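Input (N-acetylmuramoyl-L-alanine amidase):
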Amino acid sequence: MKWLWALLLVILAAPLAAQDRSALARIDLAQSSLRAEGKDRGKPRPLELELVLSQPVPYRVYFLDGPPRLVVDFREIDFSGTDPAALPGRGLVPGLRWGKAVPGWSRLVMDLPGPYALRQAVQKPALSGAGGALVSLQLEPVDPEDFLTRGNALSALRDLPQPSLVVDPKAAVRGDRPLRIAIDPGHGGHDPGAQVGAISEAAVLLGFARELTDVLTRQGFEVVPTRTDDSFIPLEGRMTLAREARADLFISLHADALIAGEAAGLSIYVWNPDSDDRATRELAMRHDRADLVSGLDLQGTDDQVARALMDLARMETQPRSEAFAKFLVSELNRSHVAMHRRPVQGAGFSVLKSPDIPSVLIELGFLTDAGDRANLFNPEWRRSTSQAIAGAVAAWAQDDAIRAGLSRK
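Output:
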């Protein structure tokens, strides 16, 4: 009977008078977990969130969009002193945070890699007994049209004000200015990049960069282009432009060529000079050939001391780059943009060498693949992809601002 009442409280989620702090439930992080079903093939997988609590509590579950999020409001849980990053399986989702919402209520917000539905929600006695409880939430991926949310974020949070950790993407700023994004369309000038018939990579990328710039600007971000015409900019010069403009994120765009059938679909690259993938090494040679043509060889230009300092700086920057890549995969999945079977990879592209600016390189597709080539000239595909990239920037900006705030505490 006791558990029946607990379930009724879950459904009704009736407000109760706040209890003493000593009576609040606590979470056992070591026994809790987030798990995914099946193998990671670059697409959203069924998820199961299990939280082991010191006692049963009423809770309510709903979803929000922009980006897709699971929200769980708990009655009388004290999350203080617990770090969501320590939850086993935390890396399966783009973001996870929790804390106090209003007196007597706490909130968990989990960013999702795409639209989901609640398959099952159960609260039952914990295996450890002693009055503990296990809350199990099973989620399954769904098509965007089947993604049921609790209205917009404002209506969903009308009775429970937004916690301070939730940030409006348009309000994402660095200091007193909007977030600044460097957009780098690859190649240009005497280096046209990959060519298939009359199609040149440099021209395709410049057109896409203009459309992406328009989408980002409309969403309140500032854009710093490395080139706005068919001109040649040395690789390190591109990073210098971004650094001088105090860019907060660097996105390099490419649409390369490989042996037919060897690669297709959008790919995202982050800095990894030790990558031993043959196709990636070949792409690195193609990306870096522009400076070699100009007589500038970037190999060996960093002395030992400089390399050590850059490696230290990357200890902070690299995780931020990887975080953006994860948000981008999530948004592209939501937009049904076809990706490579390994959507995020590491590579030693020189344009990703900056130690002080989070950076990614996006291979929009391969001109040598007929399907990718058709996408690059499809206005609807370009629009969807541009909006997905902008959505990822907004979601990453929220997460990055939260992490920066927490690190200063």
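The chain has two domains: 2-166, 170-407.
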